[in-house]
């Protein structure tokens, strides 16, 4: 299947309310439309992940994050821009601009401007940011290969594909935009 056909199939599956698996900079991720609560709940159920933890929004275009970046100071935005695109996820205040099925119990939302070619192209084909969380059931190691995704989820996903991960051994780093503090080392 060609790369462009993969993109179209993956974007269509997300737009239709599906949950897909795709490669990221370090591991395989599960993705869905963040504006579709049924899709998000299905993803959470597949992972056995509690809603309260919140999810990461990923895009290949920082413009897809809309007003979420507008309330940051110049220094905060400069810190973020120095790491994007790339494998750094930033926690930014959401000021109730995202639904609770994305933010969980937090007053911030996790955003990453991805540099992974397939994932970046997927978000452009979809036309916005997507939920992206590691492709593994809670308590299991994140999938680093497509065969691991299939072992974990079998035929429960609407699309699995997009090539290889970026090869990073560590998960994406998570930083707090307000303080610059590293929440999870990458």
UniProtKB/TrEMBL annotation:
Instruction: Please list the residue ranges annotated as the YrdC-like domain.
Output: 4-186
Give a yes or no for keyword Transferase in this entry: yes
Query: Which reaction(s) does its UniProt entry say it catalyses?
Result: L-threonine + hydrogencarbonate + ATP = L-threonylcarbamoyladenylate + diphosphate + H2O
Say yes or no: keyword Secreted present: no
EC assignment: 2.7.7.87
Identify which top EC class this enzyme belongs to.
Answer: transferase
Q: Which InterPro entries match?
A: DHBP_synth_RibB-like_a/b_dom, Sua5-like_dom, TC-AMP_synthase, TC-AMP_synthase_SUA5
Checking SUPFAM superfamilies in the record gives: YrdC/RibB (SSF55821)
Compartment(s): Cytoplasm
Q: Which domain of life is it from?
A: Bacteria
Record's keyword terms, sorted: ATP-binding, Cytoplasm, Nucleotide-binding, Nucleotidyltransferase, Transferase, tRNA processing
A Pfam family that the UniProt record links to this protein: Sua5_yciO_yrdC
What is the recorded function of this protein according to its Swiss-Prot or TrEMBL entry? Required for the formation of a threonylcarbamoyl group on adenosine at position 37 (t(6)A37) in tRNAs that read codons beginning with adenine. Catalyzes the conversion of L-threonine, HCO(3)(-)/CO(2) and ATP to give threonylcarbamoyl-AMP (TC-AMP) as the acyladenylate intermediate, with the release of diphosphate.
Family per record: Belongs to the SUA5 family. TsaC subfamily.
Protein name, entry field: Threonylcarbamoyl-AMP synthase
According to its UniProt entry, this protein's organism is: Microbulbifer hydrolyticus
């Amino acid at each position: 299947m060609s790369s462009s056909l993969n993109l179209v199939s993956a974007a269509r599956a997300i737009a239709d309310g599906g949950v897909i698996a795709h490669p990221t900079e370090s591991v395989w991720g599960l993705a869905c439309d963040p504006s579709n609560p049924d899709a998000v709940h299905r993803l959470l159920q597949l992972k056995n992940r509690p809603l309260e933890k919140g999810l990461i929004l990923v895009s290949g275009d920082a413009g897809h994050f809309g007003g979420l970046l507008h309330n940051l100071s110049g220094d905060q935005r400069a810190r973020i821009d120095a790491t994007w695109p790339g494998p750094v996820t930033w926690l930014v205040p959401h000021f109730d601009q995202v639904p609770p099925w994305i933010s969980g119990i937090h007053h911030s939302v996790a955003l990453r401007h991805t540099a992974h070619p397939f994932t970046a192209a997927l978000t452009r084909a979809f036309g916005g940011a997507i939920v992206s969380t590691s492709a593994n059931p809670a308590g299991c190691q994140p999938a680093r290969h497509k065969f691991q995704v299939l072992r974990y989820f079998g035929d429960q996903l609407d699309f699995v594909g997009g090539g290889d991960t970026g090869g990073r051994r560590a998960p994406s780093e998570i930083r707090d935009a307000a303080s610059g503090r590293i929440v999870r080392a990458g």
